[in-house]
Write a structure and sequence with these properties.
By secondary structure, the protein is α/β, with parallel strands linked by helices. Helices cover 34% and strands 23% of the residues. The relative contact order is 0.15.
Length: 298
């Protein structure tokens, strides 16, 4: 009998150096798309998928991230005084019940696999768990992890979100070696972390959503270094395949934005701004004016 996925690990220990100087004083995960931090998009997606327990792998200087999910009595009192009920409703999504969220420190930046390994004592030996990378923001009618959890009920094993990328960009991703392509789902016979473009086994790249079995943590226990000298989560999942355990890639329905890059963050800001009815007309008009001015300048 397959167990439900009710825990998720959020690796948020990175320094966000690509966004300096902003990230000198605030965690990258608090940076906002329109008016919501990156981490809020990740939490909302996890909740929609049925996640009840949230494990954050953090590092020094992430206090603002922890405070974000705490209640703010003074702010709430002021909003009540001013009858700003809509804003009070907005704040509800930012609060977490006592005991629902846990924080684990990653003291050294040794890779994604090491970050997930840091959460090992909060994951039982017989329960699957999700991993969500907040840098990967996915706009979808049905949230990506919810799609995966529903598919997982039929498959079990390990599952990774996957999307097709240009062959020349494969070296920036973990890439799947496909055993059988079943459309939305593929069975996987191998995984390679950041292969040279001409050696990539496919153009199907792993995106920052995973459903994993605790056996992956056993592989991570070996602390084996992979690409870039880091402990790679991809390598631990590939070990599941070597042990004849099922691993699947899931082609999710939605648009992924790489908010770990400046260009991706700006693209996401435009997309989410355009999706907001109260902002769309004014924002669209501004963008059209900018395009006209740019063409005129050329």
């Amino acid at each position: 009998m397959k167990r439900k996925v009710t825990k998720a690990v959020f690796p948020v220990a990175g320094l966000g150096t690509r966004f300096l100087p902003a990230t000198k004083s605030i965690p990258k995960e608090i940076m906002t798309l329109v008016d919501r931090p990156l981490i809020q998009y990740a939490i909302d997606e996890a909740r929609a998928a049925g996640i009840k327990e949230f494990i954050f792998v953090t590092s020094r200087g992430k206090g603002a991230l922890e405070d974000y999910f705490d209640n703010s009595p003074v702010l709430e009192q002021e909003l009540r005084k001013k009858n700003k009920d809509e804003l009070l409703e907005v704040l509800k999504d930012t609060n977490m019940d006592s005991g629902a969220i846990a924080y684990i420190r990653q003291h050294k930046a040794l890779g994604l696999g090491h970050a997930v390994w840091c959460a090992r004592r909060l994951i039982n030996n017989n329960e699957p768990f999700a991993v969500i990378l907040p840098d990967d923001v996915i706009a979808a009618e049905k949230p990506c992890l919810q799609q995966m959890v529903e598919a997982y009920e039929d498959t079990g094993g390990c599952m990774v979100a996957a999307m097709e990328v240009p062959k020349e960009k494969a070296s920036a991703y973990g890439v799947l070696d496909v055993k059988e392509d079943m459309g939305t789902m593929v069975s996987v016979q191998g995984m390679v972390e950041k292969p040279p473009a001409d050696e990539a086994p496919s153009n199907l790249a792993v995106i920052g959503r995973y459903i994993l079995t605790p056996k992956v943590l056993q592989s991570l226990n070996r602390m084996k270094s992979g690409a870039g000298g880091e402990i790679q989560l991809t390598d631990a999942i590939a070990e599941e395949i070597n042990q004849d355990r099922d691993v699947y890639g899931y082609r999710f329905r939605g648009q992924r934005f790489d908010c770990g890059s400046k260009a991706g963050f700006l693209q996401a800001t435009v997309a989410f701004g355009m999706a907001r009815p109260e902002l769309r007309d004014e924002f669209t008009s501004y963008l059209e004016d900018m395009v006209s001015l740019t063409k005129a300048a050329e």
